[in-house]
């Protein structure tokens, strides 16, 4: 009887070369922005305000929500975003596992032709940089104050208002 042995590499994934992110569009004219809620508690309120701020600027948005923040997005969801949106805002990461997963989601969407930005709390600046280094992706990020869960809705709205211009600059070539 013949048996087949499959060996798995237990080491961390690492890319030998860092891939530059896809070049974003010049502007948001005739663009659909995907707002990807990673599923963290209170992140939807932050995204609610981003959605309102985009609408005030006449920018079309479409929302998606991951089933859990501790795993990468389902392939079907990533494909749907790639088919229906031009750029993506992934928000709101405030822990290690969700930072790792959302960085992978950002990388996957970029590879599918959808450039974007990840919004995370300051506490995870180095985790995002480390994850990007490990997977070999030059991902774009914006950082907001940590923590998120104990903030009021008004405070979460103010956080979104404080970063909307940075978000727009990150998903366009506008500086």
Written account of the structure:
Helix content is 40%, strand content 19%. The chain has 175 residues and is an alpha/beta fold. The protein has a single domain, classed as 3-Layer(aba) Sandwich (Rossmann fold). Helix 1 packs across helix 5 and helix 3 packs across helix 4. The longest helix has 19 residues. The termini are far apart. The mean pLDDT is 92.
What is the CATH fold-level name? Rossmann fold
Task: State the share of residues found in helices, binned by percent.
Answer: 40-55%
What's the pLDDT, averaged over the residues?
A: 92
What's the number of structural domains?
A: 1
Taken in chain order, the helices and strands follow as: EEHEHEHEHEEH
Under CATH, the homologous superfamily reads: Response regulator
Radius of gyration over all CA atoms, rounded: 17 Å
Question: What is the topology, as strand order, of the major beta sheet?
Answer: 3-2-4-5-7
* N/C terminus separation: 65 Å
Q: Overall 3D geometry?
A: globular
In CATH's first tier, which class applies? Answer: Alpha Beta
Please give the number of β-strands.
Answer: 7
Largest sheet data: 5 strands, parallel
Please mark out the parts with pLDDT under 50 across 5 or more consecutive residues, or reply none: none
CATH architecture level-2 label: 3-Layer(aba) Sandwich
Strand content: 15-25%
Instruction: Supply the number of helical segments.
Output: 5
